[in-house]
Amino acid sequence: MLRQYELVDLVKSYDTDADEDALNRAYVYAMKKHGAQLRTSGDPYYSHPIEVAGILTKFKLDSTSIIAGLLHDTVEDTDATVEEIKELFGSQVAQIVDGLTKLAMIELKSKDTKQAENFRKLLLAMSEDIRVLLIKLADRLHNMRTLHFCADEKRARIAKETLDIYAPLAERIGMQEIKSELEEIAFRELHKEAYESITARLNFLREQGSNIVPAIIKQLEKDMEEGGVRATVSGREKSPYSIWRKMQKKNASFEQLSDIMAFRIIVDDVGSCYQALGIVHSKYHMVPRRFKDYISTPKPNGYKSLHTGVIGPENTRIEIQIRTQEMHEVNEKGVAAHWAYKQGEKVVGKNFRWIQELLEILEEASNPEEFLENTKLEMYNDQVFCFTPKGDLIGLPVNSTPVDFAYAVHSKVGNTCVGVKINGEIKPLRTILQNGDQIEILTSKAQHPSPEWDRFVVTGKAKAAIRRYVRSSKREQFVTLGEQMLERTFKGENLEFNEKGLVGILPNFEATSVEDIYAKVGEGLVTAWDVLRAVYPSYKQSKIGKVVKTFAAKSFGKTTKRKSKSEPLQIKGLIPGMAVHFAGCCHPLPGDRIVGIVTTGKGVAVHSIDCKALEKYSLEPERWLDISWGDDANDRVHVGRIKLILSNEPGSLGDLSNLIARHEGNIANLNITNRTLSYFELIIDIEVRDLKHLTDIITSLKSSKVVSYVARANQ
After folding, report:
1. What phi, psi does 595 have (nearest 5°)?
2. In this structure, what DSSP letter does residue 163 have?
3. Percentage of residues in the chain with pLDDT exceeding 70?
4. Count of CB atoms within 10 A of residue 644's CB?
5. CB 440 within 8 A of CB 420
6. Of 70-79, 173-182, 363-372, where does mean pLDDT reach its minimum?
7. 304 and 327 Cβ atoms separated by less than 8 Å
8. Pairing of strands 603-608, 580-582
9. From CA 127, how far away is CA 138, in angstroms rounded?
10. Which of 91, 337, 491, 569 could join 330 via S-S bond, C-beta 3.0 to 4.6 A?
11. Which residues contact 342 (CB under 8 A, 6 or more apart)?
């Protein structure tokens, strides 16, 4: 643990204007407030904030950050208050500490909800001052270093959370050192056997190649000198976690990886970077598809470097990274290398594009869990770079589509997207984008996001916006349907229906507006009778009971008939009340896998998944809906179509109809498609319950002596 004077000396070593008095007071304040508190390891609790402050000094953070690091747990774990900290150490420190305070006293429904809510609070805090995130990462790093003192279950949970959230956040702001250490400790905890196996292999290679690495460095230095480039060359071994991730991603063995050892060439300026690259490529064979120019197109976190793979000195396949010293500092220390705090300034997180996008997702998410899910998508490495027609560069995750691109440009562009030109050619919206593609998004004011887009977009921003629209669209339909249902119910009982009467019963249904009640009724969460009873509590229960009882007997009684074709279809995945019809080309039945196709002016057509007619919609994925049969699918009449060859002899048609009738089928239509002296070819529509019912009828017909061929007709 750092002593008081050691911490102050560390800060003064890189910031001579640091507030020494405030640093000393913060150190003592933290020790006094945490007092006799102990960590799980048995160490005094105040050792933790002091170690966090020590981590921050390695990145040369300003004294405000160091003080906030010392005090970051005082409000949560002691009797300290934000007001007291503001009075003693100033408003900036107080704001940062307040942003870091975990709302531990709030009872939330689940651990996932708590994690999501904490992350939401962290995002809002770091959007005001990025130092909140820097201190949070240092806090997490020290907790990970002492993770082995925790119980097994807690260790696994913290390690997973670190890999899911904190390591990607460190990557996003370019804090490579913190990212690598967080990943390493979490990997060791979650995948111990894989960690030990890869570490053992690395140790073996290190011993085996103890002479090769220095020889490669020496040769590269000689190459640079002969080419007139002043450079420093060093070797860098990939971390076990990076190796494991690449093995998983490429489904490759350890021996198949070519870039376990990478070499860095540090030069004076950007021009020398490309000169050094020319020297390397002129002397060694380049490995295809291994060259990446992150200088002309930096990563979103500011990372700049030239990467290339070659068959290098000693005939060894290696990766070479070429960068300036300034680039190296930024690549390793990220946002901390751009230091603006020495002048007492604060860096507003909203100025970072990726934080702005996370804030937009936060606004559009329906709950903390959805927000967390979508932000996880947003935080990982961007690897595809595409251009707007004006030449602006947009970075996106691998497997992104034009819809993802549209939302990356602007939410309004995404919401009104109707088509896309990729490199001048019209392409489907689900097309996977490639590096260097030029994208022109076609828009229309009449367009709205399609629920189907959610199935192929990959960015969190796109998913959040689409889901928000679908939610609001569903609500509008539920509101309309619910209002109609209530009007019919009240009118049927000769009772007055108006919104004034509904306002008084809002608390009964935990509603904040009349529209909430309509929506609950339309969605089926509340019945129209419940609302009627609430508005007219003195209305005779017997009359309502009689109506409900009669309705139940008609609908569900033992003597009830199957629902007619004219009654609404119950299809999961569609809004209640939406116009739906069965496609006449394939006659889908309960038991078939089905898909919905949005048709102009006719609502949704339900097709079986193997219907040939679906081919003509293959380039219009926005019209496809993921649907399935409702629970009451077997309660109604469905039409199945069969084709058969029947003997042309007296009584054969009667035998055919008797067989179908004995299996409770009813012939709805019959068409003779061909006739010879010996046979009839027929197409017959039969009313059945489901696919099994039709299959039973077909099996029975196959055993008949008058039927020579029978099969289901799908077209």
Report:
1. -140, 150
2. I
3. 82
4. 22
5. yes
6. 363-372
7. yes
8. parallel
9. 18
10. 337
11. 15, 17, 62
Q: Say whether 437 is catalytic.
A: no
Phi and psi based region of residue 12 (left: phi greater than 0; alpha: psi -120 to 50; beta: remaining) = alpha
Using CA atoms, how far residue 351 sits from 65, 127, 129, 357, 411, in Å, is 19, 8, 10, 11, 18
State what percent of residues in the chain have pLDDT above 90.
Answer: 23
Where residue 640 falls (left for φ over 0; alpha for ψ -120 to 50; beta otherwise) is: beta
Question: What does the pLDDT look like over 2-26, one tens digit per residue?
Answer: 899 899 999 988 888 888 999 999 9
Q: How far apart are CA 147 and CA 189, in angstroms?
A: 9
Q: Which two tokens stand for residue 193?
A: 């056997």
What is the Cα Rg of the chain in Å? 34
Predicted local confidence at residue 110, as pLDDT = 42
Question: What confidence category does residue 85 fall into, taking pLDDT thresholds of 50, 70 and 90?
Answer: very high
d(CA 396, CA 417): 17
Q: Is 269 a catalytic residue?
A: no
Phi (first) and psi of residue 73, to 5 degrees: -105, 0
Q: How far apart are CA 611 and CA 628, in angstroms?
A: 15
Q: Which residues contact 173 (CB under 8 A, 6 or more apart)?
A: 130, 133, 134, 301, 334, 335, 352
* Mean pLDDT computed over 57-78: 89
Q: Within 10 Å of residue 328's Cβ, how many Cβ atoms?
A: 17
Q: DSSP letter for 238, please.
A: P
> Rounded to 10 degrees, what is the CA torsion of 688, 690, 692, 693?
-20
Catalytic residue among 6, 51, 76, 696: 76
What residues pair up with 670 in beta bridges, in sequence order? 684
* DSSP secondary structure string for all residues of 68-116: HHHHTTHHHHSS--HHHHHHHH-HHHHHHHHHH---TTS--S-HHHHHH
What does the pLDDT look like over 412-426, one tens digit per residue? 899 899 899 998 888
Tokens 């996001």, residue?
Answer: 449
Q: What are phi and psi of 42, to 5 degrees?
A: 95, -10
Using an 8 Å Cβ cutoff, are 378 and 459 in contact? Answer: yes
Q: How far apart (Å, rounded) are the C-alpha atoms in residues 346 and 64? A: 10
Neighbour order of strands in the sheet with 425-427: 425-427, 417-422, 439-443
Rounded CA-CA distance 93/74 in Å is: 12
Which amino acid type is present at position 241? Y
Which residue of the set 43, 77, 329, 530 is catalytic?
Answer: 77
